[in-house]
Amino acid sequence: MWRDDIDPFWWYRLVHQRQYLSWDLWLEPANYAISLLWTIFFTVVTIYSVLVLSKTELPDRLLSGSKSFWDDWVVGRKRWRIYVVILLVMGVGLWTAGLRSGDEQALQKTMRETQESLEKSKREVEKWRKDSADKNKPPLSEPTAFLFLDRDVVESLYGQYSPDLQRTAVIEEITDSREIRGEVSVEDFLKTSAGQQFLQKQISQYQNSPKTPERKLKDVVGYLSERSLLNRFNGLEPRSDELKNLDQATHLLTSRYGIVINDKKLRSLRDSLLSEEIASLEKRLASLKGIVLVEGDWVVQSLGDGYRLRSPFVENVTHPAICEVKLHRDEVPTRTRDILDSLSGKPIRLSMLGNVVVGLSESSRSIQLTPIAAY
Description:
The structure is a single chain. It contains 15 helices and seven strands. A five-stranded mixed beta barrel has the order 3-4-5-7-6. A hairpin with a 7-residue loop joins β6 and β7. α8 packs across α10 and α8 crosses α11.
């Protein structure tokens, strides 16, 4: 019963925010306990009073008085006064109906706005969770528009990893297509002689089918990702509940209520909460080499002969490590040039695949990549 009377937000503060020492948190159940004790006290007093009064002359007097009231005021000559009182009550009720209706409508409006506010907050939290889950999806697993693609490098990478790459791509297609049905798994089926024959047939079809550079890149990235040969960066995932609550609250206040937050204090707080994660990330970046995939918001800067794109590895910290890519104007399609020209100085959300040229060091906070694809 107590769980139904307490505001659900009380449980959220107790279980999730762990406000064990908050005075306001414990004031609500304390008030409930006091109210319950008063109810029990008055119930016991009422029962005891009835038992005591039953042994006196009061019940007989009450019975005599009620009989006299019935005979004179209900069925007797004074009954018209009762009718007058009833008519007066009805008249007052009709006269105040508009005011009471307005109060009820205001209450219903407030409840409706509160419900809509809760639903909107729930949708925003779900969206935030979905965005976090999307970070773990395989690269290029969804339809993608490419802003830049170095076809020669893609062909070179595709040739380096064949035929293992082709076998992996075919097995992935077989698994996704659900062409193999039955009680055994795809892996168990492919271990049989019939499975090996079916696999070789599918590989031959794959080799003979024409493939665009975009499709080859998808297979290359999928292969490298599955073999853990691709370094992927898409922001730090908060580990502590305190940091998760901070990010959720910041997102809610800025996106919904339009509240301006002190960026300097926010970055300083995130520096403290992310100190261990940032140290681990920078240690990883110091030895970074090979092909990497960096996903996030990139700030575009127009240069004379091309464009410079820069993206922080960690958002909202004081001195983040930066990933930097330069695209030559003559290597970029016309449509992409128009987009980048219109975004000079503004962020664009991209996934950048490239090869590390310059790593993180004490003298430089920038990781420089040679671009392979931007999408």
